[in-house]
Amino acid sequence: MKSFLLSFFLCFVGIFGYSQNYEIKGIVVGTDGAPLPGVSIVVKNSTKGVSTDFDGNFTIANVQKGEILVFSYLGFTTKEIVLNDNIFLNVTLNEDMQSLEEVVIIGYGTQKVSKISGSVSSVSKKSIELLKPVRAEEALQGQAAGVNVISSGSPGSKPVVLIRGIPSYTGTDPLVVIDGVSQTLDDLNSLNPSDIESINVLKDAALSAIYGVKGGNGVIVVKTKSGKRNTKTTFSFDSYYGTQEVTKTIDVLNASQYVSILNEASAATGAGLVFPNIDQGFGTNWQKEVISNADIISHNFTASGGSENTSYFLSTGFLGQEGVVGGGNKSFFDRTNFTGNFNTSLTDKMTFILNTSYANIKNSGLSENNIGSVLSNALNFDPTVSPYDAEGNFGVSNTITQEIKNPLAQINDTYNKGNTNKLSGKLELQYDILKDFKITSRFGYTYTDVYSKNFSPLVFYGVGHNSTNAHADLSPIVTTDGVGVTTSTHNRVSESKTNYFSYTYELYGNYDFKISEDHTFQTVLGLSIGKNQGENVTANGQDIPFNSWEYADVSSATGDAASQTSGSWQYENRNLSYFTRINYDYKGKYLFSFTGRVDGSTSFGKNNKFAFFPSASIGWVVTEEDFFDSKTINFLKIRGSYGSVGNDNISPQFSRITTFPKYTFDGTIISGSALQSIPNDNVTWENQIQYNVGFDLKLLDSKISLTADYFQKTVDDLLFNPTLSLYLGTPVYPASNIGKTKSYGIDLSLGYHDTYGEDFNINTNVSFTTSTNKVEQINNGDKFIWGGGYGIPWTTLTRFEEGFSPGYFYGYKTNGIFQNQGEVNAHATQDGAQPGDIRFVDINGDGKVDAEDRTQIGDPFPKFTVGWNLSLDYKNFDFNVFTYASIGGDIFRAYERNLNYTNRFASTLGRWHGEGTSNTEPRVTFIDSNNNRRASDRYVEDGSFLKIKNIQLGYSLPESFYKKTGLTQVRFYAQVKNAFTFTKYSGYDPEISSGVLDTGIDRGSYPQPRIWSMGINVKF
Amino acid sequence: MKFFKHITLVSMLLFLTSACTDYVNYEAIENYEITADVYFQAPGDYEAAVVGTYDPIQWLYMDVLIGDIASDNSFSGGESATDVIGVQQIDEMTHNPNNDNLTSIYKFLYEGINRANYLEQNKSKLEFDSKAALYGEVYFLRAYYYFELVKFFGDVPLFTETRLTAADSGTLQRSPKSEVYAQIELDLQNAIATLPGSQSQKGRATKFAAQALLGKVYLFQDKFTESADMLENVIGVYSLVNNYEDQFLKAGENGSESVFEVQYTNTSEWWDWGFTPQGTEGNFGVIHNGPRAFDGPTYASGWSFNIPSADLYNSFETGDSRRDASILNFETFATATGASYAPGYKDTGYFNNKYIPRAGESGAQTELNYLTNYRVMRYADVLLMAAEANLRSASPNVAKAQNYLDQVRDRAFGDDLHRVTATNEAIWDERNFELSMEGHRFFDLVRTGQAASKISGFVAGKNEVFPIPQQEVDISGLTQNTGY
Q1: Would you say residue A1018 has pLDDT above 90?
Q2: Averaging pLDDT over each range in A509-518, A899-908, A999-1008, B100-109, which range is the top one?
Q3: Which CATH number fits domain A2-95: 2.60.120.430, 3.40.640.10, 2.60.40.1120, 2.160.10.10?
Q4: Residue A573 sits at the chain B interface (C-beta within 8 Å)
C-alpha cells in the first residue's frame, strides 16, 4: 500500500521535477487537527495535480505565484488558495455538513437525503458523542423528532421508546436494525453507544414497509463505526468519571408529626391515644438513609483504519454505573464491550464484511417501582423507629405488620445477580455483478446467555410481620402442628439460565441504473429468513448454609429432595419474507418510491400465514425546478407517503391440554389435566395504514433547515384477547383481530448553523413531537381492557378503552371535602362518608356514588415534547446544552401504602379537622369508611417537566501541542447530566418508565440522578 | 444480457425458497405441547381429566366464607372497610353486580362444569373397565357445581354436552332453577348408579356422598319425602365422632363422620399470588380467618376476615362443647397463653376456630398453603337434614326426626340431658349450633325463609340470591336477578 503511494508520488515528482518555477509543500488537516490523507490538489486550469500522503503532506513542484490550488476531499468543502510567496501551506478543510448527511441508511440500501420521499429522523455521531448516553436510546430523546423516549434512572434499565404514538396494545417496541441485522430494543443494552456512527429512525410506512410485519412500531436503524480504507490507524481513548446524586426528597411526616397525626387518627375512631409520648423529635429520615451518591465511570478505546483492501474498526469499552438508591453493592450495571468490524475486498468484485460484538453485563438490582420497593419503604416506614437498635440489629416496627419494612433491612436482605454474555454480529458477502448491480448475502445473529441468581434469606422484620420468616436471631421458625409434625421456614435460592438465539439470513440484489440521463432508478429485491428462539432452565433449592449469600447456590442447598424444584420453558418463532423497493426520480426533481414486502410468520393462524405490506411515496424537489429561483430558499422538498406495516406480537395458538390442574387424594398431590387454550385459526397480523405528508426546507445558504411532517396511523385489526362469557370458564381464549386505533401527530425539526469569523461556530436544533392516540373500537364486549394498577390491595388504574387515549387513568373525580353532616346528606349517597371525608362526584347522576361513577381522571402521555440542542464552538472551547421538555402528561402518585401505621406525606398536616379547616386533605382516621384512598384525581398530578438534560464544556489543546507529542486531539470536558428539572410534580422524578399501559404510575419509581462528570478524549 | 442471466438466477433462488412455506407453520410438538387432537387415548388421560374436574372445587374457598359473612353469624372483618370490598359489601347486604368475589365464584363453578362436560364430550373415544365408576365422579362433581350455582344465583345457563368454546360466547340464556335442579338430580342418580360405596383414595366421591348430596338437593327444593328417603340410605353408614372438636383438626380429617371433604395439602411448593387460588393445593380460605399479627402458640397470623359475632358466641348453651370448638375467644386464650394480635376491622375478639391458621399447618408460601380440608358434608349435617325432612315430609316421621336430632345433641353435650323436642325451629337452630362457621348458614336461612328476619339489611325478594355478574349481563346478555 505504502509503496504504491510512494511510486505514485515519485511519478509526479518525475513529471514536474524539471520545473523552472518553485516547489511548494504543505499539510492538509481537518477541523479537528487530524491530517487528511488522499486529499486531491490540482492547480486550477491545468492538468497538474497531486494527493496528500498518509500524514497529510503534499509537495507540488513547478508552480508559479498567482496560480490557484484547489483542495477537494470527499465530505469536505472544497477550498481554493491563491499562491503567494509562502513555500509551506497549512491548509484546514471544513467538513461539509450537507454532504456528510447526504446519505442515510434505509432498509437494504442507502439513499441520498435529498431524494428521500419518506420520513426519517437522524441522530449523528456528534450528538451521541456529546451526550455520552448509558444506553443508545437516550440519544434519541428530544433529538429525533417523532420519537418519545421515557427513561428510568435505574442503572441499565430499558426505557419506553415510542415512535409516533401507540397504535397497538400488544407491543410498542420499535424494530432495531443494527448494521442491517434485525434485533430488538433489548439488544441495545449491550451496544456501546460510543461505537455508533449514526442512528436513523424510519418513521413512515414508505420507509418501514420494507420491514413489513416487524415495522409497525417504527424502525431504528443503527450503523456502527467502521474504518476507512487507505488511512493510518487512528487510536482514540475516551474516559470519564462521574458522581450521581438525587436532587430531591419528598416531604413526609417526621416522628413528632407522625405520632400526633396517628393519635388523631386513632381518636377519630373513638379509641385512645396510640402514642402517649408525643415528643419524638425528628426521628429517622428514611430517605436519607437509603439514598446516597454513586459513581459512574466509562472507558472506551478504539482503533480504526484501513489498507487498500481492508478496513477495520476495533473497540473495547467499559461502563460501570452504581445505583443512587441502596448503594453500589446491591444496585449496579457493569458493561464490558469488545467490537471488531472488518471489511475486506476478496476480489475486486467481492467484498466480505465481518462484524462481531461481544458484551458482558453484570448487574444487581433492588426492588423498584412497586409498593414493596426500597423507595416506597423509605417513604412509608415508621419514622419513630431507629435504623438500628441498641444491639446493632435493624430497627423493627411493632405496628406495621404488612409489606412495609425497614428499607435498610430490605436492602441488606436483597441478594441477586445477573450475568449476561452476548455475542452478535454479521457475516456479509457483497458481489458486484455489474458496476451498479450488487448482490448481498448476509447472515446476522445474536446469541445471548443470561444467568441469574436470587437468594431469599431468612429475614426478620418484627414479630408478626408478614414478611418475617425467622426469629430475631435469624434462626428458622419451627412449628409443630396438632399431630406432632414439625415444619420449618427456609431460605431459598433460585438459579436460572436462559439462552436466546436469533438469526436472519438475507439475500438481496441492488440494481441502480439510469435511462437516459434523466431517469434514475434504485431497485432492490430480496428475501429474508429469520428465526427467534429462547429456552430457559430454572432450579431452586432451600436451606443454604449459614443463611449466607456467599454460600447461596443450588449446589450448596441442603434441603430435602422435595424442596429442590426445577422448571423450563422454550419458544421459537420463524419468519419468511420477500421484499422489493423501487426508487425513481426524474432529474432529481420528481421522486417516486414503491416498497412491498410479503411476510410469513409462525405466529399466525393456519388460514392466514402470509401477509403483503405495500407502500408508496412521492416527492417534489421544488428548488430543482427551472422556474424556481430564490436566493433565500436553497432547498425545498414536498413529500407524501401511504402504506401499510404490521405487528405479529402473538404466540402460536393450540388446543392445549395442560397438566397444571392438580388435586389431592390421600394427602398426595395428583396431576390432572384440562383444556387450557383454544386456538383461532384465522388470527392474523395487525395491519397498520399510515399516511405521511411533510416537507424539507433549507434557507439562507442552508444555514437554517426545517423538516416538518404530519402523520396518521390507523389499525383496523388490532390483536386482542376478547372478553367472553364467564360461563366458558377459565381457559385462555385466543387473540382475535377485533380492535381499531388511530394515532396522528406532527414531527418538526428546526436547525440552524453558522460560523462567525474564523473562531465561532453555532449549531442548534429544535425538535418538536406530538402524537395523539385514540382507541377507536374494541369489539371485546366490554369495550375496554384493564391495563396497569398499583398498591395493596391491587387497584387497577389504566384502561385501553374505546373512545379514549390508550392507558388513560380511570377513577373517581373529587369535589372537595364534606365540611359537615349537612353536606354529606345533601350529596348523592356515598356509603360510609362522614364530615372530613372526600366528596366524590356522582358522574352519572344516579344519586349514589359507586363504581359506575369512575371516569377519565388523567392521561399519562404528553401533549407534546420538545428537545433543544445548542452547540457553540469558540477557538478551542466547545459548549453544549441539551434541554428536553415534556408537556401535558399526567402522573398518578401511587407510592402511599395507607396502612394505619405507615407514614404519611407532609401535606397531611393540612388535613381537615373541623369545619372549614381544609377542602383538599381529608380527615385522618384509622377507619376509612369512605375509602378516601380509592383511585381518584386526588392522586393525579401534572407531570409536565422541563429538564436541562446535558451541559457540557470542553477544551481542546491547541495544535501547537500536537506536533510535539504525535497526538492529534486532546480534549478535556466537564459535563452535568440531568442538571435541572423544572416541574410541579411532587415526586422524585416526573419521568416514569415502565410498560406502555403502566406509564405515569409512580409506584416509587427510580429517579434519574444528576451526574457530574469529568472526561478526556485523546486521539493519536 | 449478462444482467438478465443474473436476474434469472436470483428469481430461481426466490422460487426455491418459496417452496419452504412450511417454514412458517408451527406444530405444537415443537413446544412439547399436548393438544386436544392427541388426547383421550388411554385410561390415564381420562383419569387425569377427572382429577382436573375435581380441581376447581378447591378454588371455592370464598363460597364458604360468604356462607357465614352474608348471614347473621359473622362479620366481614379484614384490615379496613375497603379490604376485599366485595366481601365488605356482602356483609352489609349492599353488594351489587360488580363484585369480583362473586364473579370469581361464578366463573370457577362454570370451569368445573366445562371440565366435566369435556369428559362427557370425549366419553365415547375409549372403553375401559373403570370408566363407568369414573364417570360417576364426573356427574357427582357436575351436580355439585350446578348446585352451588343455583344456591348463589338462582336461574343459570345450563349445558351438559360439551365444553363451550369462544364461539358459544353470548349464545346461552338462563335456564329456570327447576330445570337446573332436574339436571342435578339426574346427574346424582347417574352417579349413585355407578359410584362404589367406598373409594381406595380418600377424597373421591362415593355412592353415599352422592346420596347425601341428592338428599340435600331435594331438601333445598322442599321435596321432603324424597329427601328423607334418599338420606335414609346414608343413615348408619357413617358415625359421629365422640369429641366434636377433633374432627376439625388435622388428625380428624376424612374421619368416620366425614361424608365428603374438599382435600387440601400443605406440601405444594406453590408461591404465585398471581394465580391464586387456581394454582395452590392449599386452602386459601384459612388464612383469611386468622387473627392479624398473631404472636403466641397453637395458631398463626391471618387476615381477620369472617369474624364471628358476639351474638353467635353467646347463643350457645352452657355445656355445649361446640361453642369453643367453633369459636376462638381470644381474650380467654390470651389469658391462658399470653398471646396477642392486632385487631382488624369490625373486630369482635372472636375467630372462626374451625378454619383458622394453625401453627405448622402450612408450607412454602404460607398464606396460600394451609392443609385444612373443607368439610363439605358431615354425618351430623346428614342427620339434621334427615330429621328436618322426616318432620316436614307429607307423612312425617317424628320419631326418626327426634332420634336424629338427639344423636347430634347428645354428642355435643356428652350426655342425653340436653335433648330438645324436634320442631322445625329447633332443628334449624341446631343446624347453626352444629354447623356454624362452615359456610351453610346463609343458604339455610334463605331456604327456611328466616333470612329477612335474621340478617340486617336483607331485602326479601332480592337478597335470596346474589346478583348475576355484570359481565354476564353485558357480554352474555343474561337477565339480572330482581332488585339488582
Answers
A1: no
A2: B100-109
A3: 2.60.40.1120
A4: yes
Pairing mode of beta strands A814-817, A838-840: antiparallel
- Inter-chain CB proximity A481 and B360 less than 8 Å: yes
Residue carrying the nine cell digits 359506575: A852
Per residue in A843-864, pLDDT tens?
998 888 888 899 999 998 888 9
Residue A871 sits at φ, ψ, to 5 deg, of: -125, 130
Question: Residue B10 has what pLDDT?
Answer: 57
- A861-878 as b/e: b if 16+ CB within 10 A: bbebbbbbbebebeeeeb
H or E stretch covering A960: helix A959-965
Task: Please indicate if any CB of chain B lies within 8 Å of the CB of A561.
Answer: no
- Cβ neighbours of A661 in B, within 8 Å: 51-52, 55, 115
Written out in words, the top-level CATH class of the domain with range A99-228 is mainly beta
Which ipTM did the prediction report?
A: 0.92
pLDDT tens across B332-361, in order?
999 999 998 888 889 999 999 999 999 888
pLDDT of residue A12: 40
Average pLDDT of span A478-505: 87
Q: Report yes or no: A578 at the B interface, CB cutoff 8 Å.
A: yes
**Measured distance CA(B29)–CA(B27) in Å, rounded:** 5
pLDDT bracket for residue A631 (50, 70, 90): confident
- Please report residues of A whose CB lies closer than 8 A to that of B266: 487
Which A residues in the span 413-442 are in contact with B, Cβ-Cβ below 8 Å?
Answer: 433-434, 437, 439
Could you tell me the three cell numbers for A140? 434519541
Is there a contact between B170 and A725 if contact means CB atoms under 8 Å apart?
yes
Q: Between residues 38 and 67 of chain B, which touch chain A (CB distance below 8 Å)?
A: 39, 45, 48-55, 58
B57, closest residue in chain A (CA to CA): A663
Closest approach of B340 to chain A, Cα-based (Å): 10
pLDDT in tens, A232-283: 888 889 898 999 998 888 999 999 999 999 888 888 888 788 888 888 889 9
Q: How distant is the Cα of A79 from the closest Cα of chain B, in angstroms? A: 41
d(CA A223, CA A177): 8
For chain A, give every residue range classified as CATH 2.170.130.10: 99-228
Q: Is A666's Cβ below 8 Å from some Cβ in B?
A: yes
Closest CA to A878 of A949, A948, A950, A952: A952
- What domains does chain B contain, in order, with CATH numbers? 42-195+449-484 (1.25.40.390), 285-356 (no CATH)
A661 vs B52: CB contact, 8 Å cut-off? yes
Mean pLDDT (whole number) for B263-283 = 84
Interface of A with B in 631-660 (CB under 8 A): 652, 654-657, 659-660
Which residue in the set B80, B279, B342 is minimally distant from A401, CB to CB? B342
Higher pLDDT, B259 or A77: B259
Q: Please list, residue by residue across A191-218, b when 16 or more beta carbons sit within 10 angstroms of its beta carbon and e when fewer do.
A: bbbbbbbbbbbbbbbbbbbbbbbbbbbb
Per-residue model confidence as pLDDT tens digits over A331-347? 899 999 999 999 998 88
| pLDDT of res. B9 | 57
Any CB–CB contact under 8 A between A480 and chain B?
yes
Q: Residue for cell digits 392474523? A: A684
3-state secondary structure of B482: coil
Q: Which pLDDT value is given to residue B11?
A: 58
**B172 min Cα distance to partner chain A (Å):** 9
Question: Which residues of chain A form CATH 2.60.40.1120?
Answer: 2-95
**CA nearest neighbour of B266 among B281, B278, B253, B255:** B281
| Mean pLDDT for the stretch of residues A406-413 | 92
B301 with A464: Cβ contact below 8 A: yes
In chain B, which residue's Cα lies nearest the Cα of A465?
A: B293
Phi, psi dihedral angles at B170 (to 5 degrees): 75, 10
